[in-house]
Structures are given as structure tokens and as C-alpha cells.
Design brief:
Layout lengths: L30 H44 L7 H8 L13 H10 L14 E2 L1 H13 L4 H9 L3 E2 L3
Parallel strand pairs: 1-2
Helix pairs in contact: 1-2, 1-4, 4-5
Length: 163
Amino acid sequence: MTAHTPRHAAGHEVNVAAVDDLHTRPENTHLIIYLVAFALFVGLSVWGLVAFNQNQRDAESLSKATALAERFQAAGLGTLDVDATARVLGTTGGVACSHPGDALRRGVLDQQIVNGAAGPGQRPIIATTDVVAGERIVIETYCPDQLRGFVQYADDLKLVDDK
């Protein structure tokens, strides 16, 4: 036994030399770290693109909602909350532009042109042009390609101009 070799309590020699196990480890020990880092990078990239596109859509929807609010004001239909309109109609007009001339949409609008009673007392009325003016402005602003079908429907209604 040498003087520089430490002894364990049981009397066995303990090797204190630095262990170089770099060449004995499998080569793929860092693979998990690389895969996690790559997945994190891809996830953050996708999130960034989605957030960027969302901001563009928000700006476009606010622009369209502002234009719609100005047109409502100019037509004398009152004021609109621009933020709420942008959230509801978005950039495409939402449900207002989803087949505005189909039977269901016409039925809903026809149901709104009544005297206000419910049940057997409900009767159709001759409404003012303001009833369809708002819908027309929304369609002109958000989906002008579908305006013709709506105009054909609105022309068949019996409306009076109260202005």
C-alpha cells in the first residue's frame, strides 16, 4: 500500500482518479434534450405565426367595423360599438354574410316585421325601410358579392319610407 492511496473504513483502497466515461456512454444521451428543444422551438414558432395573423385580422376587423359604424351613423340608424361589432362580425361578416338570401334568413327577418304581439295576436305589418337598411349596409360592407340576392328579397317586402 502506498501513502497517497486513501483507504476505505473497511480497509479497501478507494480509487479517486477522475473518471472519463465519455467514450463509454451511448451517443444518444443528448437526443432527448435536442428533441425537446426542437419541439419547443417549433411550438413557439407556430404560436408566433398565429399571434401575428390574429393581430392582422383584428386590425382588419376593426377597420371594417369602423366603416360599418360610420355608414350606420350616416344612414341615421344610430351608433354601433366598434369593438363589439368587430368581435361579432370579424373580417367576413359572420352569420350576416352566411347565405343572406336563403329561406331561413328570410324567415327570421319576416318574423321581425310584426306588430310585437305573441301567439295568435301576432300580425305582419308594413315596416319602414330602416328594418332592412341595417342588414343591407352590413352586406354591402362585409360581403358585397351577396348583395344581389338580399336586394331581390328586400324588394319583395312592403316597406314605407318614414323620412
